[in-house]
Amino acid sequence: MHIIHSTRVLAEKIHEYWVEAPLIARKYRAGQFVIIRTHDQGERVPLTVVETKPEEGLIRLIVQEAGKTTTEMAAFKAGDGILDVVGPLGKATHLENWGNLMIIGGGVGAAPVLPIAIAARKLGNTVYSIIGARTKDLLILEDEFRAACHETRVSTDDGSYAVKGFVTDALKAWVGEGLKVDQAIIAGPIPMMGATAKVSKELGIPTMASLNPIMVDGTGMCGACRVTVHGKVFFACVDGPEFDAHGVDFRELNLRNQAYRTQEAEAMRRMEDHKCKIGLTNVAREGVVQHG
Amino acid sequence: MANPNLTQADRQKLPRTQMPEQDPKERVQNFTEVPFGYDAELAMAEAERCLLCKKPKCVAGCPVGIDIPAFIKAIREERMNDAALILRATNSLPAVCGRVCPQGDQCEALCIEGNKHDPVAIGNLERFVADWEVRNNAITIPDLPPPTGYKVAIVGSGPAGLTAAGDLAKMGHDVTVFEALHRPSGVLAYGIPEFRLPRIVVNSEIEYIKKLGVKFIYDVVVGITVTVDELFEQGFHSIFIGTGAGLPRMMGVPGENLVGVYSANEFLTRVNLLGASKFPDYDTPIRKARHTVVVGGGNTAMDSARVSLRVTGNHVTLAYRRSMDEIPARKEEIHHAIEEGVDFQLLTAPVEVVGDDKGQCIGLKCIRMELGEPDASGRRSPVPVEGSEFVFDCDTVIVAIGNSPNPIIPRSTQGIEVTKRGTIKIEDATGATTRPGVYAGGDIVSGAATVILAMGAGKTAAKYMDEYMRGLPKP
Ligand SMILES: Cc1cc2nc3c(=O)[nH]c(=O)nc-3n(C[C@H](O)[C@H](O)[C@H](O)COP(=O)(O)OP(=O)(O)OC[C@H]3O[C@@H](n4cnc5c(N)ncnc54)[C@H](O)[C@@H]3O)c2cc1C
Ligand code: SF4
Ligand code: FES
């Protein structure tokens, strides 16, 4: 059991957890992830590690409510436990001093690239970053990016905050102003990564994408995480999670990730039903207390 | 009761005692064990068939050399406890082996009774004794010698690791098992389904090993979470690597990443380890296929096909590229699969997974094969029949064509040599790797093999790890 030390809401449906996992905290390097299971009937879910405190044996996870497990996790409080945490899995990001490094994170995808930005800066890179979100309420980690990078730009799809537009627009604009980008690293929703990879290719920027396929074991045993890169099949959990963005078959990745969409919806529906039936009075009473 | 008046000729005329089992129509709807096992009466009847050969061939067929006539004689004389002790003397997982060993290719293949008639049902008898032991709470924890002070790390809790752990604990060493998954026993937990190997059976074996003082630590990937070097630094004197062959081989045909194409490992892990057949009571989902095609002919393929029948209730086809003569799965499983309605398409090999515009698998294109000259394995090799391509109309494909050795440890550890196939190199007689103090065995050394061979390897390594450690300065 891994005890949660603290939780915090970063944005709508995006939560932060500091979790006890001393072995992982000691070993973790930027780019790696863990697989968790919250209870005995739970599924195995991969989550990026955003930061660690090795001396205190803590790891920081940032989780968006998406499926059943992550939605259940929203109710977790300090002192609760996560049944299994295994890792740090995947290869650490390959880092070198490229010169000008562009870090791009979309939505909760900002989380995996933050530690990469920090590590890359230590190696002497000049680190630029673009973080984007659909709307203002979904933007996370802005202050930390501003602190970690030489310069950070923010975009929202709907213009509710900062510059209106997609991260791709921000990238094009920045390069248009004369910024020379030697390397880019991107993470985010698959359509966003696909679009960004296309633009960065046109701009001639070598680009790595941190992929998020469905995983089961995370050690190369099951093959659930298969991705196609430059026509070859890789297991993202051991060969990745980062790959040359210009070779990734994002369409395939997107389809594979939606394989269980109807079942997930069913599980969520059941969970909602269940909550209502058992929690009806509680919910009402809490509502009264809060608003009264 | 034993009938001493039977002549050898009489014994040979006795028919092989069938094991009662669940009706196929019923059992495809549940995950409960298929054969019910012998009761004492049936076991004793079957034991009467053994000729108690002076020079028993069967023993030579057993990879761990169980004294087969001796334990069968004990059953015949209703000395069940003795039978159990004889089994335990050489086999620490008899209830598992009685169920999953390929007896048809091992002991039973050599049984002298089998020359003219059916061989003695050695596997069924082994299972009977092991179950009797559990039912009667007769498993005795042996008196352990005083602690030696030597510490052993076992990497991987499959049959190889469990056997090495048990044996080393019995020698008085302090044993810790590190397992990457959240549950012990490797393929026995995530691969082999419950209807063939009930969890309760596996769990009782684990309990036994725990009672010997072995500690289990889960969710630790050795080579990543902690390295072999770090284990030595932490004071372990010797390390056994039993990480198995967990890397699925894919077909290398177009379309094999389409939605609906599983590796057998993923499919079986979802159901066996994560309870996906009970979704949404369990959180792990699984595809409800309309028609599944399983590719392969080994135990993994049979298990995938039979699990698929139970999960979906729909049509399941098995495509194997050679003929029934070459099919490698246990005979009993093939028989069970056929009874349950798996549609066997032999001499059939995949060439392409067909997808629709949404990236979903909608078919498997195959080609018929014929058998040509024997290949390196001595089996006649399949040759495609030109122009015989056709398409199975299916929405799920499960690829069960084998596994490669798990590369995590060799990759992350200095001094451990591997072969061209990626298996760990060992000294055959001792299990020693090229790095002093590190031993290995099971599928990580042999490539995908069997439970009993993995156990045999664990046993050998344990013996030489003991020897190695006793040569070290006293801790
Ligand atoms: C579906 C299926 C059905 C089968 N049916 C039969 C059968 O009927 N009869 C038969 O004899 N054989 C059968 N086999 C083969 C048999 O299961 C294997 O030969 C046997 O399990 C090998 O044992 P092992 O101990 O070497 O490895 P495994 O059982 O593979 O166990 C290895 C363990 O090590 C763990 N591990 C891996 N890497 C690490 C790491 N770095 N750190 C920590 N832990 C790690 C794994 O999680 C796993 O638990 C079957 C195999 C499959 C897949
Ligand atoms: S060879 Fe067959 S008949 Fe002879 S001892 Fe072994 S099991 Fe009995
Ligand atoms: S998650 Fe199983 S192989 Fe990658």
Can you describe what's shown?
The complex is a heterodimer of chains A (292) and B (475). With 292 residues, chain A is α/β, with parallel strands linked by helices. Chain A is built from 9 helices and 16 strands. In chain A, the strands form 3 sheets. Chain A has a 7-stranded antiparallel beta sheet. Chain A has a 7-stranded mixed beta sheet with strand order 11-10-9-8-12-13-16, with helices on both faces. In chain A, α6 (190-202) runs antiparallel to α8 (250-257). Chain B is an alpha/beta fold and 475 residues long. Helix content of chain B is 35%, strand content 16%. Chain B contains 19 helices and 16 strands. In chain B, the strands form 4 sheets. Chain B has a 5-stranded parallel beta sheet with strand order 3-2-1-4-16. Chain B has a 5-stranded parallel beta sheet with strand order 6-14-7-8-9. In chain B, α16 (331-340) links the parallel β8 and β9. The radius of gyration of chain B is 23 Å and the shape is globular. The N and C termini of chain B lie far apart (54 Å). The A-B interface holds A 23-24, 27, 37, 41-44, 68-69, 83-89, 216-217, 219-224, 226-228, 233, 238, 249, 251-252, 255-256, 258-260, 263-264, 266-267, 270 and B 180-182, 218-221, 224-226, 246-248, 250, 256-260, 262-263, 265-266, 269-270, 274-275, 278-285, 287, 358-360, 406-408. Bound molecules: flavin-adenine dinucleotide (FAD), iron/sulfur cluster and FE2/S2 (inorganic) cluster. Residues 215-218, 220-225, 235, 237 of chain A line the site of FE2/S2 (inorganic) cluster (FES).
